[in-house]
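Priority: medium. Attachment 1 of 2:
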């Protein structure tokens, strides 16, 4: 049996180790924890601490604790943990040794060889210091791997001909953007840019300042000189920030944050995502300047980039992908856990060097997008069939996301919630997967905020909860098998079943189309009629779309079997199909799918 090689992401804030386990690249965990904080310390009793205990000690004994040692790699500086001082490779070696021990415990065999990742901009001295750290830890460093290249390997970008990949890495304290040219085993970093002092920690700080000023505006005392209160505020802000990536509001509550004249003062306020985004927008826009610079250095235009990969915990901030998409027209990929992506890539290379065939990292993702229809404007015309997904396809599972909607009329007491699967902005072009009535809202003017939360788990169970924000009144529905592909016949029969169900469902008081027509009069009848023909058209379209997707999947599987010429043609057709799908250009879709089907037939036969 080949000797195991592990892949290590030796990060500024956190480190991880990955390896091939039961045929899959996995980030290895001790007691359920995959992330090891890159912090080392010596307790007053003389015990060596690595990871979480060291990070906890930092608050109390910063002079006995070392963090962010990666910033000093390649320098002569020495750091202290109590009395003696240590070189940066020695400190890094302690982190590597902890990861080696973890890997040995999980794999149940000695681990002597590793691939270790470093930032693309690391100098020779910094790379050598990393090798030294490995050696001190008892690891032969078989390869030093650039972090953006690791991300590209994790996503399998090296398996699709020559690709230009933009890796956007926003962590806690550092930001890097790299343009990587990938072609099979050969990868080249074309350009890399960044800011060594920008990251999620800065977002926390802005939120702390904002919350503190609102706390004071509400009559709270100034706590900026109170270290304990400020560290509680910082922790609350970071948690709120993370929630705001998935929810439109976050509440910060800290009992007894401070005192005034001996009386406890509590913090209790709510921050909206919109407010938060306003605070951090200029920082994210600043990162786009670096993206622009990296492209300019590499002599590439945005439309020459094939893929954008997101790395680093702070890229979960929705504004990051939103602004990147606006700038480049590409939807950034984030189906791999952004904190673990580099470790995964190191694991892929490590496994390959040990002689295993690894294409890319496989994780469970949602194959479809899901969301409710709502009243809004479709191509400038008011419509009750507007649609925007809450869960976007390719999101890792399990996932939980919430969006806000507002009532359209005064005294609106109910919302007929229709849940669709698909990506088309016109709800009726997607597949209806569930419907229920949320009612009993307060009789207030239009604009009453209603939250819709979607939870999708690994078993494909989708739970939708609709809550009136002001009262907390909630209603939910559970949809099973949401991620299972339905055949056209199944879709139709599911729709029929649902129609029947609505008719019988007393609790939900579903207003069926007949009732709807009765209330609305003849005019609505006309609309209902026209919807029937539209419905037929939609059905054809759905078949066309699902066939195109299946064909793309088949095409991707066969790419490796093709000669260069066929592969290039297939990739071009994949692109045409994807563009036609995105732009809803049905005729073009038909032509491109026919061509691809012919090509695949020929490849499969050959
Ligand atoms: P990394 O250095 O890659 O581990 O990134 C850590 C940074 O990501 C920290 O600033 C975290 O607060 C931030 N982060 C982690 N999860 C989220 C999230 N859900 N939304 C926004 N930022 C996050």
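Attachment 2 of 2:
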């Amino acid at each position: 049996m080949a000797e195991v090689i592990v892949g290590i992401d030796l990060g500024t804030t956190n480190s991880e180790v990955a390896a091939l386990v039961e045929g899959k690249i996995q980030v290895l965990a001790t007691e359920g924890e995959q992330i090891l904080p890159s912090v080392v310390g010596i307790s007053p009793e003389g015990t060596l601490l690595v990871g979480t205990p060291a990070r906890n000690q930092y608050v109390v004994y910063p002079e006995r604790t070392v963090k962010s040692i990666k910033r000093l790699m390649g320098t002569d500086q020495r750091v202290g943990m109590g009395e003696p001082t240590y070189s940066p490779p020695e400190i890094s070696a302690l982190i590597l040794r902890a990861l080696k021990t973890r890997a040995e415990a999980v794999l149940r065999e000695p681990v002597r060889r590793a691939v270790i990742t470093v930032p693309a901009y690391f100098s020779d001295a910094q790379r050598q210091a990393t090798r030294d750290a490995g050696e001190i830890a008892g690891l032969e460093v078989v390869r030093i791997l650039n972090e953006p290249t690791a991300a590209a390997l994790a996503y399998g970008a090296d398996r699709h001909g020559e690709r230009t990949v933009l890796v956007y890495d926003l962590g806690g304290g550092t930001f890097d953007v790299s343009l990587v040219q990938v072609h099979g085993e050969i990868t080249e970093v074309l350009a890399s840019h960044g800011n060594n002092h920008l990251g999620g920690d800065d977002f926390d700080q802005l939120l702390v300042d904002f919350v503190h000023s609102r706390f004071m505006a509400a009559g709270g005392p100034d706590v900026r000189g109170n270290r304990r209160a400020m560290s509680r505020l910082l922790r609350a802000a970071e948690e709120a920030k993370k929630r705001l990536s998935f929810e439109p509001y976050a509440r910060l509550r800290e009992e007894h944050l401070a005192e005034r004249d001996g009386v406890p003062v509590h913090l209790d306020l709510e921050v909206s995502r919109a407010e938060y985004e306003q605070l951090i927008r200029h920082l994210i826009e600043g990162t786009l300047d670096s993206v622009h610079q990296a492209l300019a250095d590499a002599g590439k235009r945005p439309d020459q980039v094939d893929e954008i990969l997101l790395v680093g915990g702070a890229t979960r901030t929705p504004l990051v992908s939103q602004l990147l998409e606006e700038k480049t027209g590409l939807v950034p990929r984030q189906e791999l856990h952004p904190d673990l992506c580099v470790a995964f890539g190191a694991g892929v290379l490590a496994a390959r060097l040990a002689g295993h065939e690894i294409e890319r990292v496989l994780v469970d993702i949602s194959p479809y997008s899901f969301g409710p229809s709502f009243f809004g404007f479709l191509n400038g015309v008011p419509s009750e069939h507007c649609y925007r997904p809450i869960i976007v396809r390719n999101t890792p599972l399990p996932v939980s996301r919430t969006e806000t909607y507002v009532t359209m009329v005064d005294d609106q007491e109910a919302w007929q919630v229709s849940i669709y699967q698909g990506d088309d902005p016109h709800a009726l072009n997607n597949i209806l997967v569930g419907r229920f009535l949320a009612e009993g809202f307060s009789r207030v003017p239009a604009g009453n905020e209603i939250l819709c939360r979607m939870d999708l788990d690994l078993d494909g169970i989708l739970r939708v909860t609709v809550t009136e924000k002001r009262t907390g009144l909630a209603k939910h529905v559970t949809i099973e098998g949401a991620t299972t592909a339905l055949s056209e016949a199944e879709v139709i029969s599911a729709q029929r079943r649902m129609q029947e169900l609505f008719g019988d469902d007393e609790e939900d008081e579903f207003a069926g189309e007949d009732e709807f027509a009765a209330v609305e009069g003849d005019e609505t009848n006309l609309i209902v009629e026209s919807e029937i023909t539209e419905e037929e058209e939609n059905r054809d379209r759905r078949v066309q779309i699902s066939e195109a997707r299946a064909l793309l999947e088949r095409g991707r599987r066969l790419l490796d079997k093709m000669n260069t010429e066929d592969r290039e043609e297939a990739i071009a057709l994949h692109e045409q199909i994807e563009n036609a799908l995105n732009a809803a250009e049905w005729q073009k879709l038909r032509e491109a799918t026919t061509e691809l089907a012919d090509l695949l037939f020929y490849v499969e036969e050959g």
